TrEMBL record:
Pfam families xrefs: GHL13 (PF14883)
NCBIfam families assigned: deacetyl_PgaB
Name of this protein: Poly-beta-1,6-N-acetyl-D-glucosamine N-deacetylase PgaB C-terminal domain-containing protein
UniProt lineage: Bacteria, Pseudomonadati, Pseudomonadota, Gammaproteobacteria, Oceanospirillales
Organism: Vreelandella olivaria
InterPro entries reported for this sequence: PGA_deacetylase_PgaB, PGA_deacetylase_PgaB_C
Residue span, Poly-beta-1,6-N-acetyl-D-glucosamine N-deacetylase PgaB C-terminal domain: 2-320
Length: 348
């Protein structure tokens, strides 16, 4: 759920937005909401500001804690803080992930802080620590920005990290050797997961005295399931995720992946996912917008996708984004397929 949909510079309008959101979630009868704790008004997936007080980024509004509390108390749902792992725009003076082909940041991907730089890691840990200290939530959803392509990271600190792991400092040399390539992808995959576990500890640091269950979920690109070789394009692996987190959030978005037959593609994705991970640990995230055409996907089609996934044995299903201003998807179409009695776990 985008807090950008709730935020408004007019406090009266913002309050009306919040009331509308709470009413909608209450009517849905869903169990869990992934609530975006960062501001991304331009939709590029990079955090320009945050919705909670912190030491490093501007605060667009101190909104996350209030909305999370209202959702928990009035809509009776669990709330996960949906946070970036690396894609924080802290301006100049920080080292960002670079591509070996250009020596610069890739224009085709999120701007990401290099996790191989200790100053970057410390800053991100402090942001998560501030989140845990100043807000109340039930778990974390790690954004889909925690990836490296097969040309990243080429920053000096990254090359030093590869050398420490008994890999060459030369990425092109790694790419030209299948054995080195396999080792490099494994190293990067585990490095990213280990860093998210550090962030989990940071977010939970001030919460431990509450003795409440704290759960984690991380977004996984579907192509890494459908085409295993593509794991090297993202440094993501489903079984690694299953070992590191309570839930693997598969981005089950057929139009984003340009699937020729969305229904068949979803069935195959479900089958391949269940062959690796238990249904209880999987969350399938559907899309409600076709970002290629910039048009909403019909609610009836989204509901059909939910039915297909249910038939294949997927229990935990949600969608993104939820535009409560336009009632999209249509709650009257979606509510029957998101019935708690059918063990569905909806995550707008």
């Amino acid at each position: 759920m985008h807090l950008d949909y709730v935020y408004d510079p007019d406090p009266i309008q913002q309050e009306q937005n919040l009331d509308r959101l709470i009413e909608r979630i209450s009517r849905y009868g869903v169990s869990t909401v992934y609530l975006q704790a960062y501001a991304d008004p331009d939709g590029d997936g990079v955090a320009d500001a945050l919705y909670f007080p912190n030491r490093h980024l501007p605060v667009r509004a101190d909104l996350f804690n209030r909305v999370a509390w209202q959702l928990k108390k009035r809509a009776n749902v669990k709330v996960y803080a949906w946070m970036p792992v690396l894609s924080f725009d802290l301006g100049p003076g920080y080292q960002y992930v670079t591509d070996v082909r250009t020596g610069n940041e890739s224009p085709d991907h999120y701007r990401r802080l290099s996790p191989y730089v200790e100053a970057n890691r410390r800053t991100i840990r402090e942001i998560y620590q501030d989140l845990g200290r100043l807000t109340k939530f039930d778990g974390l959803l790690f954004h889909d920005d925690a990836f490296f392509t097969d040309f990243e990271d080429a920053s000096p600190n990254a090359l030093s990290a590869y050398q420490s792991a008994s890999l060459p400092r030369d990425i092109n040399a790694i790419r030209n050797d299948e054995g080195l390539m396999t080792a490099w992808v494994r190293f990067k995959t585990e490095y990213l997961t280990d860093f998210t576990l550090e962030l989990e500890q940071a977010a939970n640091y001030y919460r431990q005295a509450d003795n409440k269950v704290f759960t984690t979920s991380r977004n996984l690109y579907a192509v890494t399931v459908m085409e295993p070789r593509s794991q090297r394009w993202f440094a993501q692996d489903m079984q690694n995720f299953a070992s590191g987190y309570d839930f693997v959030a598969v981005m089950a978005m057929p139009y984003m992946e340009e699937a020729e037959n969305p229904d068949a593609w979803l069935r195959s994705l479900a089958q391949r996912s269940l062959a690796q991970v238990s249904a209880d640990q999987l969350v399938f995230e559907l899309q409600t917008q076709n970002w290629h055409t910039q048009t909403p996907i019909p609610s009836a089609e989204i509901a059909q996708w939910v039915r297909i996934l249910r038939e294949e044995g997927i229990n935990n299903i949600g969608y993104y984004p939820d535009d409560f201003h336009q009632n999209h998807p249509d709650i009257n179409v979606m509510r029957p397929v998101f019935s708690i009695g059918r063990r569905f776990r909806a995550i707008p």
